[in-house]
Amino acid sequence: MNADQFERTGRSAYKGWTTCATRYGDLDPNGHVNNGAINAFFEEARVSFRRDNLAEQCGDVLKGFVVAHFSVDYLAALGYPGEVEVGTVVTRIGRSSFGLAQAIFQGTACIAAAEVVAVHTDPATGKAVALPPPLRDALMDYLVSG
Amino acid sequence: MNADQFERTGRSAYKGWTTCATRYGDLDPNGHVNNGAINAFFEEARVSFRRDNLAEQCGDVLKGFVVAHFSVDYLAALGYPGEVEVGTVVTRIGRSSFGLAQAIFQGTACIAAAEVVAVHTDPATGKAVALPPPLRDALMDYLVSG
Amino acid sequence: MNADQFERTGRSAYKGWTTCATRYGDLDPNGHVNNGAINAFFEEARVSFRRDNLAEQCGDVLKGFVVAHFSVDYLAALGYPGEVEVGTVVTRIGRSSFGLAQAIFQGTACIAAAEVVAVHTDPATGKAVALPPPLRDALMDYLVSG
Amino acid sequence: MNADQFERTGRSAYKGWTTCATRYGDLDPNGHVNNGAINAFFEEARVSFRRDNLAEQCGDVLKGFVVAHFSVDYLAALGYPGEVEVGTVVTRIGRSSFGLAQAIFQGTACIAAAEVVAVHTDPATGKAVALPPPLRDALMDYLVSG
Question: What CATH number is attached to the domain comprising D56?
Fold first, then answer.
């Protein structure tokens, strides 16, 4: 099942959740939270997802995962001040990489939806390495249903 | 009374409070929240202070105030993830400007303490203008005790 | 012709160029320029592209264009200090939107390659509006060859 | 001699220079380069100053120096696009710390002027350590004249 096969802009598909607050410094000359900050919320949610769900299996949650691909649809303007909730779900588990879908919500409104390919690497060398079985198993717990 | 005449690194002097969460993107190559993010927390707390306490008196809380001077002592390293509380108090009220003291805390530990001179300006011209009496009165309510 | 039909990681397809310098503040805990900064270089190049090539046709180059979709492949780690060159080319011209392909290079090494859907909007309403013919004509001058 | 004893807003006192370009992402809702970006230019210039002038004496130029105090006067609004030049000079050399004065210019116009106290630390422990004599000697070469 891939990210196109579920409703990306609804809350029900997502299995991990992170709350982020917008900052004044996130505003752009149009008075909207800029896309760079939106992207940072997705990043924040990925780090939280690792810390909350994969810490035991992945060692240093701040290192080891490299984002190889990021794709995002910006669906609605976001204001300040405000909080958003970011949902994350695993969409694919490969040999050394895995896919995530993520979406940012205010209530039921979807602000942005993203897909990510993360590669598990050896921090020392930066090279991709096979997902260790315990990490693979932990990721399975967050695989999208369907 | 000026900012040197009260205990800047204790919580008791501050009259307005804002909570900020650190973000992964705030980390620097040393693994600490970088000083730029610390400065952004002070900015965030100033905007919140205006919105919470001065909105009625100052119109557009995102515009009109220009920081002319900012001085900060960085007292302790800050990690991620984590939340900080930022205290703000008015230290001086002038003709078109006012002084603020601010400090960032985790529990009772003071992470950084700052002093700010903010100038009230006409957004259209960018020129300093006298503080309107209602705004001056509102600022008085948050003047440091002593 | 779409972005898949030309060599996205080679310099020859791109028609507009912008130089960006990495900043110390762009570094993440791994000592690499973080993906957020990479994304900001793409943004910077889009603004430069509008200013250099479309200013006469699009009015306020800082407003009016909204990025609806952004997709990026991160291909190589980027260090500091350093400069990158960002190439931009138009890949598609629609009724109110257009597609761009972009890539970041150091010499001949491609650091990242992106695809963007930009929507022309009325800054006052935020609604999509048809590309005015002069803007459409200007975009044609930067359409990818093939 | 301290930083008050020379003309901080003129170019002649500064001995190290760094050029920075403003980015679209530096703009705030007022359409000005925000103070956080101004602060980042000062940071950028400090890192460049270490790399250009102190690399041989200070080992890892990205680590080891901790800013304990930063004070800045914002003197003029800064626009985009544009380049600034940042001047840096040593104002004081202590046992484990040293003072810097810095100023940001566009041509002869001074955009902002700052004073910094930097502490030399052991990266492993984060504790202040005495400036090694070769580093002290190198700093002397950039001590403000007077």
Answer: 3.10.129.10
